[in-house]
Specification:
The protein is of the alpha+beta class and 634 residues long. The protein is built from twelve helices and 20 strands. Among the domains are: 189 residues, no CATH class; 83 residues, Orthogonal Bundle (Helix Hairpins), CATH 1.10.287.130; 154 residues, Heat Shock Protein 90 (2-Layer Sandwich). Strands 3, 4, 5, 6, 7, 8 and 9 form a seven-stranded antiparallel β-sheet that branches. Strands 15-17-18-20-19 form a five-stranded mixed β-sheet, covered by helices on one side. Helix 8 crosses helix 12, helix 9 packs parallel to helix 10 and helix 10 packs antiparallel against helix 12. The longest helix is centred in the middle third of the chain and has 64 residues.
Length: 634
């Protein structure tokens, strides 16, 4: 067994090491896959934010150049401008136009119109922003802020290359990074003379301007600022091209058409919480700037509320958006503001004109992979199966070894049990042959000893043969109806001499039993085996009593044999019915036996559909309980 245990330990180590390595690598791969998936969907969330910014840029760029006036001149009359109403978006303060001379006009109110009370404060702010903008015309536009995470661009690019999408798309086929939202270069449009007059309400002559030199300087300044912002300046822009096209009437006529150059949107910071996003309109050497004022904090809160808060990713990702020195941050549920930011997952500086806006996502806690639970369950089952298998192998090997040892002991015991009666028989036969028994009484005594030893030898041989037939299932049972009275009478008669010789008292208590089927000879043999066991192990005691009782319990006929002997050790109560098993103690070593008696008892009872069990009494001795089915009939 020691060698078997050593082999099993070596086997466990050899199997566990590669299994642990595979599990470790698999768990690592699952974690990396979850990280890649989170990065992939974080990028998709940033794409959604960028798509909203692009939609906002597209809507502002598609506005007609004359919509920044209060009314629009159309065929058949005038109509209010779509911008004459307050913006629907809470993060837009309002729209206004900065004229070439620095003057201010807004579609919210017409020239000469009394100022509505609800617009007074808003118009006051817009005028103040126009004044600040006039002072900052020659200041470079908003640069893109550096990412706060401290990551180098190469590190960010490396993480992007390791994204989940790389498993399915080649890098050359992936989406190109945008540098501009909306139009990339200045476009040229044709407008009617009415639209041109509506655009330049304070200009009487569109073909000439006393401030043309200043306008050219402003245009060149805006181009330089645009180039420094990160969006290439358009070399095709020239103030010399801003003149009427195919004029069929004198300048300023309502029937002429004009070319205007519309530059891409740009952004300039007004203060820490507002940004003016505008476009340059060039017409006949005059530069107009049309745009809207973006309130940064409400704008960031809007982006987070729309694109981050409703998403499941918000449970384990932190999104931080920064714009012109302001930032807005969303924490996952249950994560405090003072906790670590977690691993960087995705980041983006948005294209112009929102180059001042950045977003970063950090993983505070990653969702467990569904495969991780399956893998853990599989490993647990595999481990349990391995442990159970090894335990079963060990138990089976030990059982086989124990059985082998008991068989060896049985062979030794049978040899001894056979040798003793044969020696006695041979000795008394020789004594009779030599005439040592001089009297008839002595001869009769020798004959009785020879008969007893022959019966002992015959019983031992019969037990071995019975065990062989029961194991081969060739033993036939003669089941006949009865109430056990014949069995008890035979047992009492057969055991009377042995009980009297050893000084035992036998008491039999019978209840009213139904008639049921049993093998009379088998039950007699079973009871004799049990009583002989009691006699053998209790003959050295003072109190020598054996009790047999019968009763009916819940459809079973209950037959018990109790004694006042030394009892059975607790650890051996379930093993005493095993083949060749003998309790290992001083008492069993000093008494003879082969370990077949109780084994035959169990096999006989089970073969007749019954049950048998052993238990110690509250006092001295033990009780063997036999249960036979009362409903069984021949």
């Amino acid at each position: 067994m020691k060698r078997l245990r050593l082999y099993m330990i070596i086997f466990c180590v050899l199997v566990s090491l590669p299994l642990a390595f595979v599990a470790w690598r698999t768990y690592g791969a699952l974690d990396r896959e979850v990280q890649a998936q989170v990065r992939f969907f974080a990028e998709r969330l940033l794409d959604e934010i960028e798509a909203e910014l692009a939609d906002l840029v597209r809507r502002k760029e598609n506005r007609s150049v004359d919509e920044y006036g209060h009314t629009l001149v159309q065929e058949g009359g005038t109509t209010p401008s779509p911008l004459a109403r307050l913006p629907v978006e809470a993060f837009i303060l309002g729209h206004f136009q900065n004229n070439p001379d620095g003057s201010f006009q807004t579609p919210l109110v017409a020239d000469g119109e009394d100022l509505p009370a609800d617009l007074a404060e808003r118009l006051k702010q817009l005028k103040a922003i126009n004044t600040v903008f006039n002072r900052r015309k020659r200041i470079a536009l908003l640069p893109a802020p550096a990412p706060q995470s401290g990551k180098e661009p190469a590190a960010i690019e490396k993480k992007e290359q390791a994204s989940f999408a790389d498993r399915f798309l080649r890098a050359s086929e992936r989406k190109k990074v945008k540098s501009v939202l909306g139009q990339e270069r200045t476009r040229v449009e044709e407008i009617t003379a009415g639209q041109a007059m509506n655009l330049a309400q304070k200009e009487n002559n569109l073909s000439a301007s006393p401030n043309k030199g200043d306008a050219v300087a402003d245009m060149e300044m805006d181009e330089a600022a645009t180039s420094s912002y990160g969006m290439p300046a358009d070399p095709s822009i020239s103030t010399n091209r801003m003149r009427p096209v195919e004029e069929t009437v004198p300048a300023g006529s309502q029937t002429g058409r004009f070319q205007v150059e519309v530059a891409p949107l740009q952004a300039v910071a007004i203060d820490g919480g507002r940004v003016f996003i505008f476009r340059r309109i060039g017409i006949d050497g005059q530069i107009y700037r049309q745009g809207f004022v973006l309130r940064l904090q409400p704008f960031l809160d809007h982006l987070l509320a729309v694109h981050y808060d409703p998403q499941p990713i918000a449970r384990y990702m932190r999104l931080t958006m920064t714009a012109a020195g302001l930032d807005a941050q969303r924490q996952p549920i249950g994560v405090g503001a003072g906790t670590a930011t977690g691993d960087w997952v995705a980041g983006r500086t948005f294209p112009a004109p929102f180059g001042f806006l950045t977003a970063e996502m950090h993983a505070v806690s990653l969702p467990p992979s569904p495969a991780r639970q399956t893998l853990t369950l599989a490993l647990a089952i595999l481990g349990a199966v391995m442990v159970a298998g090894l335990a079963t192998i060990y138990h089976s090997a030990r059982t086989v070894l124990d059985l082998s040892e008991r068989r060896s002991q049985f062979v030794s015991a049978v040899t001894h049990e056979l040798k003793t009666p044969l020696t006695n028989i041979r000795m008394y036969v020789e004594m009779l042959d030599q005439g040592i028994a001089a009297t008839p009484e002595r001869e009769q005594e020798y004959m009785g000893i020879l008969s007893a030893e022959s019966a002992r030898l015959s019983g031992l041989i019969n037990n071995v043969l019975e065990l062989s037939r029961l194991e081969k299932r060739t033993r036939r049972f003669d089941l006949k109806g009865g109430d056990l009275s014949d069995v008890l009478a035979d047992v009492q008669s057969l055991m009377a001499e042995s009980l009297a010789r050893e000084g035992f008292d036998l008491s039999i208590h019978t209840g009213r039993l139904p008639v049921f089927a049993y093998d009379r000879d088998v039950l007699v043999q079973v009871l004799i085996n049990l009583m002989e066991n009691s006699i053998k192990f209790s003959r050295h005691l003072q109190d020598k009593r054996i009790a047999i009782s019968t009763d009916t319990v819940e459809g079973w006929v209950k037959l018990t044999v109790s004694d006042t002997g030394p009892g059975i050790p607790r650890r051996s109560l379930k093993q005493v019915f095993d083949d060749f098993y003998r309790v290992d103690n001083d008492l069993t070593r000093t008494t003879g036996g082969t370990g077949l008696g109780l084994a035959l008892v169990k096999k006989f009872i089970v073969a007749m559909g019954g049950r048998v069990q052993a238990e110690n009494n509250d006092g001295p001795g033990c009780t063997i309980t036999i249960r036979l089915p009362a409903s069984r009939h021949r």
